[in-house]
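ABC-type Co2 transport system permease component-like protein, pasting as requested.
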Amino acid sequence: MSHIHMPDGIIPTLWWVLGYLLTFSIMFFIFKSMDQEEARKKIPFTGIAAAIMLLGMSVPLVIVPVHLSLAVMTGILIGPKLGFLAVFVVNIILAFFGHGGITIVGLNTLIIGSEVFIGYYLFKYFTQNINKVVGTVMATVLALLVSTTLMVGVVGITAGLTEALPHHHDEEHLQEVQHLEESYDDHDHQHNHGQLSEEVAKIEYFTFAGWKAVFLILAMGILLESLGTALIVKYFLKVRPDLIMPTKDI
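Structure tokens follow.
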């Protein structure tokens, strides 16, 4: 749900280049430090986890205008290193389908990749003393809060906070892209600050409007992703418990 959906040409060049440089640096470190034998064993599960993430990020939820990322689930099942690589591949595929531009892939990988690492290590910490399903929920909630904060920060700095507000990405996607391009062409920070209240006031969710609707949408998205991740982990605990928290962090 922290995926940036903006098209190419919105984020300033410095930011998306920096995003790619950091992403490739992390990937280089991962390849150098990864246990190759363990990684080969995990390749089939990496493909499955990537497919689940791709599905979650592509299919809109009916009851809330956000997408699931299931990045924490990926980290728990295949480890943070392979999980980060899977996030990069998924973001490349999503970019080709128009869910964010090619130039945003680096930043999206960093943001969603943070969910993989944070969720994995929080799960590892929490489940030392509590039930694994409960630990999954707690780890997912905290990881999503961090990644969403990162997403809002990056988008707010580079394109304005109005572009970080929840959108119906698959409803009128073309119109949204045109709106983003126009807003960037006459970009002005004072104007954006003035627009924020107006844009927030337009957001409605059930009987709520404005900031109440925004926070309710975010809370519902986090709740649904946390419960979905917990159910998937619970299933694997029954059928393949060896996949949950392997001895090596690959």
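Note for the archive: The chain has a mean pLDDT of 83.
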